[in-house]
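Progress against Task 2.4 (sequence-to-structure conversion) is shown through the following example record, which the project officer requested during the mid-term review.
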Amino acid sequence: MAVPGRRNGMREDEDNDVEEGLFEEDGLVVDAQFDDTPPHLRQLAAVSQSGDLPALRLALDNLDGNIDEPVEDGDTALHLTCLYGHLACVQLLLERGASVEAKDEDGALPLHDACAGGYTEIVQLLISRASDSECLRRMLETIDVEGDTPLHHAARGEHLDVIRLLLAHGASPIKKNIFDKIPAELAEPDTEAKRLLEAAANTIAY
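Structure tokens generated for the chain above:
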């Protein structure tokens, strides 16, 4: 999973360093952090992270490759737009055929990223694009390298609306990760998120 803090994290006095870390490719300025990204995917990676919708549309029009190819740290373009909360870009990628079940190098889906960020509208959109009930079940139950489901990610961030949405669609509140933690145990004590998750877990027999 890419790290959101990588973008817009520079101080104003670091502007010169930022400029030195940029290069121009086919008319688009691309950050040098994408040096390890295959050249044909660099524009797609950059605009997916920045959320520039017109530039994303252009990058997709010119894409010489698969829309689900990893573009950075194993993330697909859909992972990045979900991670950074770019709803319109997520919509465009889904319209162009991006897979909601693509996994990054940690085994996480775009849904994990959207839940971690608390992006309720994106979570709803991804859920609505499940092809059938079995696809939705897989999305809700898929675990990453630490055994976390999307609900674990939402719980850790105490994103109440996302938690409610996931539970309403059948996410398990009692599934444990590799640290033997259910989602309720990842929320801070005395929070509404924790109370909601505990109540949901208590209705299901272990």
